[in-house]
Design brief:
CATH topology of the largest domain: Arc Repressor Mutant, subunit A
Radius of gyration: 16 Å
Oligomer: single chain
Number of domains: 2
CATH superfamily of the largest domain: Winged helix-like DNA-binding domain superfamily/Winged helix DNA-binding domain
Mean pLDDT: 94
Number of strands: 5
Order of helices and strands: HHHHEEEEHE
Shape: globular
Largest sheet: 3 strands, mixed
Strand content: 15-25%
Length: 128
């Protein structure tokens, strides 16, 4: 479903569906929920398009972000993909990121800080 919406929004906004862009959409549809890094995406894309540059990838990712199809966040200095564009919480344990949709917690944070909440990252780890 995400893939179809992405292709529709790209076409509707006048973007060409280049082979590289189509491959990016395909990869995001397959692994996007795992919160991949841009480096992970580039490795996947280069299997089929070995000459694709990081700047081309980044430009295409920003296009998808501008179209409201994904968000970006940073984790340990790496930019990660967030496919869930609704306000939610990311529970982060090492390299694993789990989405938690809890409107009550999101609203409580909103009330506490007085600002719209889009994404909350919570780092968890073992007790010392």
């Amino acid at each position: 479903m995400w893939k179809e919406e992405a292709l529709e929004r790209l076409k509707g906004s006048g973007y060409k569906l280049t082979p590289q862009r189509l491959k990016l959409v395909e990869i995001l549809n397959r692994i996007g929920r795992e919160h991949p890094s841009l480096k992970d995406l580039l490795i996947e894309i280069r299997e089929e398009f070995p000459t694709m540059s990081f700047s081309t990838l980044y430009s295409n990712v920003l296009t998808l972000k501008e179209l409201g199809l994904l968000e970006l966040f940073s984790l340990d200095g790496e930019t990660r993909i967030e496919m869930n564009t609704k306000p939610h919480i990311n529970i982060i344990e090492r390299d694993r990121v789990i989405d938690v949709d809890d409107p009550d917690i999101i609203e409580a944070i909103h009330q506490k800080i007085g600002k719209k909440v889009r994404l909350v990252n919570v780092l968890v780890g073992e007790e010392p």
